[in-house]
Amino acid sequence: MYDIGIIGGGTAGMTAAIYGQRAGKRTIIIEGSGFGGQIVSSTNVENYPGIASVSGSEFSMNLLDQAMKLGAETEMEQVTGIRDEGPIKVIETTGKEYPCRSVILATGVTHRHLGVPGEERLTGAGVSYCATCDGAFFRGKEVAVVGGGSTALQDAEFLSNYCSKVYLIHRRDEFRGENSIVKRLEQKENVEFILSATVKEIVGENAVEALILNHKKTGEESRLPVSGVFIAVGQIPQNDRFADVVKLDGSGFILAAEDCMTSHPGIFAAGDCRTKEVRQLTTAAADGAVAALAACKYTDTLI
Questions:
Q1: Residue 34 has what pLDDT?
Q2: What are the sequence ranges of the domains in the chain?
Q3: Rounded to 5 degrees, what are φ and ψ at 127?
Q4: Which of 20, 43, 44, 71 is deepest in the core (most CB within 10 A)?
């Protein structure tokens, strides 16, 4: 029997394990693909307080090592669902079952990819899915943002403060995001809109050098030299398997506020998988701490 079962081995999940173990609880982290989460693919992390610079993989492995040294258990299993048995929650996986007094969902999100040649190969070498994480590395350089929603618009606005030129590429004639941001971007001399265009290929040997664009109205292709491309075409939560135990919003994110409490007593949500405005490394760690302490308080009522 575990006091806290944590589904997801990213920053939020591992932080939750650290706080749970320090509170004297028996915790287990169940991860389906690889510990660390999305930050593992970042070559440099420079926006975490107190750490000037560290690779994403080193940051993640330090977290995992800290949690395990405190006694947290880990399992590599694909979680298929949660079964409620009164005060006990049973985490179901493809291999076995884990009875827990409380559960923390820290499943994160996956960024929607363009699926074009060069994207996967150059991820971390000019291809990024987080402007606020990686934008400072492109200070004084020309970059592109791909997307038409509010996230893409916000990314372009953020990058315009660092980069010499920001191209905002959208497949439609109009942006879907907030019109007020569009108007601000129109006033910036270093921001240029490229509408009715899609990215066909990301070009570069060891780092991004250019984008090959397809212009939908003319059918023509063009080459756009850039040092980086920030892809903001949506995020995909992995929460459908929990829809029978916790409430989700229309996009599939777990309904939970800053207290990390879900609609189901004893089940908490931490990190990017929950409804929130800011999804950063620091907010994932904060969620992990909040959720773990809430889970500890809940388990104490059962003993």
A1: 87
A2: 2-111+235-300, 127-231
A3: -95, 125
A4: 20
